[in-house]
Amino acid sequence: MSDSSLPAILGGPPIRPEGPPVWPQPDPDIQAAVASALASGSWGKYHGDHVCALEIELAEFHGISHAITCASGTLAIETALRTLGVGPDDEVVMSAYDYEPNFLSVHAIGAKPVLVDVSPRNWNLDPGSLATAISPRTKAILCSHLHGGMVPMREVMETARQHGVGVVEDAAQASGAIVQGKPAGTWGDIGVLSFGGSKLLTAGRGGALLFSDSQLYQRAKLWLHRGLQQWAPLSELQAATLRPQLRKLRQSTLIRWERVNQLVEAVSATPGLVAFSNIVSDSIPAYYKVGFQYDSNTFRLPRDLFIKAIRAEGIALDPGFKALHIGRSPSRFKTHAMPINASAAHEQCIALHHPVLGTTLEEVAQVADAVAKVYRAVAEGRWS
To answer: Which CATH number is correct for 28-247, 3.40.640.10, 3.30.70.1530, 1.10.472.90, 3.40.190.10?
Structure first.
């Protein structure tokens, strides 16, 4: 019989033998929406009811004038940059710790990323690092809300307006969040959402752009069209699945926030593991990932081994992103100062996937139990 106090990676029984919760989780309202779309035939139309209705509902939810859906969040980023006039030989200022396709999207239109550092408390873009990175060639700032942290957008917009550059606000990980009193994605000149298969609002694939400026909306809409048709649209069936999810987003955001507060308190006594700080006032975070700063020297276990141990317990924990300035030729980007905090994020960030946050308090507590179980084994010298 195995020792129940041992981590599963060392031969003990896992805390969640069934593994992490599935995503997307079963939802009768989504099932009904799909059945309705199939019955009406709208699922196979070029121009049915659902895409148009979803765009209206997205605009209303975010309190803005216009929304455009498209095939992916990455396409939405590229469209936003092009809409702001970014092109060959221009510069785009962005965090050195960010989603890699954002970096590649800047290159896709011939521009150069200018990488700035992140806040040491939540590893999201630090507005204080922007001013020195902006040059006469800067056309836009691209900022992403990551791992439950938020970028102080008011400060970003103040700097952008002082220098006359546009802002793309990537809220792909923050659907439903409130940032300094406004919905995430509505501070920037253009906001971006993602509906990828693991996202808080999911259609398997897809994305959206958010606009308060009608001229920018028309410019983006024109670029996305090839003649009569949008060349990379969201489908009617995808839109049908998203509409009931959007109606529940505010409630689910608050539930995840409550669950994260419980989790953070439960792991707060564990040495070497610190949750991202929400340093932005008047805000409600959304948690596509729950970010933690992991100090392997304090916990006394390498990060990769810690992650393997927690995953063996049935918990969906992963390393964070790779920092954009590490492992790349310096010719592919610019920096004005070494992004020290982004380097730390590259080495130390771990992220919990969100589906468990929509379950019971007991299941969320299992995450903390898994961490405690692994730490006890380390402290007791049982790892060897």
So the answer is: 3.40.640.10
Q: Residue 301 corresponds to which tokens in the numbers above?
A: 């276990």
Q: What interhelical angle do 361-379 and 303-312 show, nearest 10?
A: 130
Whether 326 contacts 343, CB under 8 Å: yes
Give 86-124 pLDDT, tens digit per residue. 999 999 999 999 999 999 999 999 999 999 999 998 999
Rounded Cα distance between 67 and 265, Å, is 38
> Any long-range contacts for 230-235 (C-beta under 8 Å, 24+ apart)?
230/70, 232/70, 232/71, 232/72, 232/75, 233/51, 233/69, 233/70, 233/71, 234/51, 234/54, 234/69, 234/70, 234/71, 234/195, 234/203, 234/206, 234/207, 234/208, 235/43, 235/51
Provide CB contacts within 8 A for 265, sequence distance 6+.
Answer: none
Does residue 12 contact residue 6 with C-beta atoms inside 8 Å?
A: yes
Architecture of the CATH domain 249-379: Alpha-Beta Complex (3.90)
Q: With beta carbons less than 8 A apart as the criterion, state whether 351 and 51 touch.
A: no
Strand ranges (E), 263-329: 273-275, 289-294, 317-319
Domains in the chain: boundaries: 28-247, 249-379
- For the entire predicted model, the pTM comes to 0.97
Quick: pLDDT tens for 127-172: 999 999 999 999 999 999 999 999 999 999 999 999 999 999 999 9
DSSP code at position 351 = E
The answer to whether 225 and 205 are in contact (CB under 8 A) is no
Vertex 133 angle, CA 149 and 173, to 5°: 20
* Beta-carbon-side half-sphere exposure of residue 295 (alpha carbons within 13 Å): 8
Q: What is the Cα–Cα distance from 277 to 270, expressed in whole angstroms?
A: 16
Q: Provide the CA 217 distance to its chain's centre, in angstroms.
A: 23
Handedness of CA 9, 12, 14, 15 (dihedral sign): negative
- Give the CA angle between residues 40, 43, 47 to the nearest 5°: 100
Q: For position 231, what pLDDT does the model report?
A: 93
